[in-house]
Structure formats: structure tokens, C-alpha cells
Amino acid sequence: MSEIHSLAGPYVLHALDESERETFIQHLRGCETCAAEVAELNETVARLADDAWSVPPPALRDNVLAAVRRTRQIPPARPVRVRREPTRWWRHPAALTTAACLLVAALVGGATWTVQEQRLRDERATAQAAQQELARTQAVLTAQDATVRTSDVAGGGKVTVVASPSQDAAVILLATHSPGAQKAYQFWLMEGTTPHSAGVLAAGQGTATHLVSGVNAADAMGLTVEPAGGSASPTLPIIAEIPMK
Amino acid sequence: MNGDEQPYQRPDRLSSVPDVAPPADAETLLRAVARGDEAAFTRLYELVAPRVYGLARRVVRDPAQAEEVAQEALVEVWRTASRFDPARGSATAWVFTITHRRAVDRVRSEQAALDRVQRMAPEATQTPADEVVEQATARLQRQQVRRCIKTLTDLQREAITLAYYGGYTYQQVAQLLGAGLPTVKTRMRDGLIRLRDCLGVEVSA
User: What is the pTM of this model?
Assistant: First the structure.
């Protein structure tokens, strides 16, 4: 049982403060078995109302029925698709540094959506790979030795690198404008003056969460704009550079 | 068939459905309420109001405030009935969850303000004694809940009742019981699991 899951009791008893409640609700969205347990515990807790039976004052009935006559009802909600597993993310929130915490919050939405899309296309293998990447991304973001570095991108936007030596990996977060339909952003790991490609984004893509392995030997991370599909060596100028050491 | 047989006579009037309302369960009523059926809401009121009011009273204590909380909760039941999802639990649980949430919110905002001045005020006189009327089924359910609460360990029972009837956060409960936070939250959960098994609660999703 994960640490956060022990909040199921206080949650159904309405005994959590707001921030813990939000965290737990996030947890529930990603965990079907937890949701099932919470439904049962909620049902159990509601039975405690049986022992609170008390004759209401007669005025209550009149007041409630009068209020109902002047209260408009809300329409049904649109059906919500049940999210599956991906939010394992939140299992070790205590280990997060403050900066990484914010990043995780920003990432969860996008990452979950990615996994969902893949499921919709029923590409199980791809979804699994995405989940593994998600798990690895989480490991980097929650690592005790994670460092966070941010740099402006020439021409606007930001790039952030969360690197963990113990994981020998880094998570790159890019938030900038599209490079144009026929162009793509490419990441480079610089060892001394030698660049190694660290991945190419899809053509036109300006925002990304990108996991890179084998970063411990790198001195810096660079960003360039390349023709769609990427290049073997960087096309100058380097529009963002972040030292890794 | 022969010709002497009495011709079919149309009755003067159609016999009416017996005047007694068929027993309706909370879920059927709540579905009708979601379609704007005020009569169904009135019957749902009769079914749940003693527990809604009793729960509000138990948590907030002050009868006048309990009445306000009960009214808010019942109007919210009317207003949001279309959001009830039977796959996630029973209609009564849904109603009491709304009520409890309202009562707890009231207590917490109260605590932030004054230290419950109202408690010192004399009790409103029009509140009838709890024992006056009590339906047989309600009594049975109540007995079952009490019996099951007795199966809990002291710590489980106190943690759960302080949180539920007292409206305390689990941090406050831990302080009151002089116990650690991890212990209290764990006891709440395993105590509720024991209660669930004792009461035979199931959610048929």
C-alpha cells in the first residue's frame, strides 16, 4: 500500500485539509482499485448517519420545499472517461524538490493525455512504452540529487533541464513557439565540443517533455532548429544552452 | 363463446390506483428528482430528512445551525440530483455525503471564527425530543451500526467517530488522542474496512 493511499480513511471521513484532499483526488483518478475501495468506504461511512437519526423541526420541511420550488436544477454532467493507471507519479511526493514538484504538476496533465491518446488508438505496445517513459521521467524528477536549470530560448520561450546523476538521465521541458511546419527542434548533448544528438521533436512542435538517458558525460545541453527529421550535426546558431556540470 | 353472455360493460369510471404510495427506494426517487419531480423530492425528504438533520445536529451541535445545514444539504440534493451516479454508490450514501460535507464545512468555518458562542445559547424550544418518533427500520439500522461500531478497537472507534461526528481533521484527531498521524490515518482506514465487512456494505458497479 502506498503512503498516499492510507489517506483513504480520512478522505471519506472528510478529515483531510484542502491540499491533501486535492492530492488524494489526483491519486484516485489514476487508480481504479483505490476508487473502488473509496466507493465502499464512502458507503460505509454514510451508514454512520443511521445512528444520528433525529426528528427534524417541522419548519425544516416547509423551508426546504419552498427553497426547492425556487431553485433551478443543474443539467447532467457529460460522461467522464475513466483514467487508468498512469498517475503512479504521485507516490512519493515527499521526495520531490519544490521546483520538481511544480514541474510534475505541469507534466501530469500532458503525460496522461498522451497515454490516453495512445489507448484510444489501441496501440498497447506504444502505450506501455509511454508508461515506462513516464515512470523513468518520474524517477528523474523525484530523484534526491535532481538539479533544475532553466534557460531562455533565443527568440522567446524557455527550456528547463532536470538532471539526475544517480539516474544518468535528464528530463527536458521545452516551452516555446513552433519552429515552423517544415522545421523541428533538436536537442544536443555536448561533450567538450563534440555534439551528440539527444533527440528530435516532431516537425512544428514547440512544447515537449523529453527524457534523455546517458547524460552524465555531458558538459552542456544545446537546442537548435533543424529541418524536419533532424540533422546529424547541429545547425548553428544554438538557440539555448544549459550547462550540465 | 355464446351470445347469451353478458356484453362487456365499460366500467363507469376506471378504478384508481390505490391511494397508498408504493414503497419507493431512495434511488428510484432520486432519479425522478433529477427529472424535476417535486413530489418525488417530497417523498425523498420524508425518507432521509431525519438522518440528514440528525447528522447535521450531531456534527454542528447547535440546533439552529443544524437546521440551516440540513436545509442547504437537501436543497443541494435537489439542485445536483442529475449528478448522482448509481455506479459509484447508493442514493442515501450520496445524500449523507453531501450532508456531512456541509456540516464539516460549517464546523470548520465556525472554528475559524468564534469558539462557538452559539453553544452557550439556550436550545431552541421547537426541537422535538429525539425519541418521540422512530421508524422500526431506522431503529434496526441504527442498532446494526452500533453493534458494528462495537467490534472496532478503541483507537479505531475513537478516530472514526471523532472525525465523522466531531467534524475534526485527522491531524486534530491525532492531537486529541495523543497518537501519531500515520497511526491515526491508518486506524481510520482499517477501522472503516472492518465496519464495511460487519455491515456487509457493497457497491455494485
Answer: 0.56
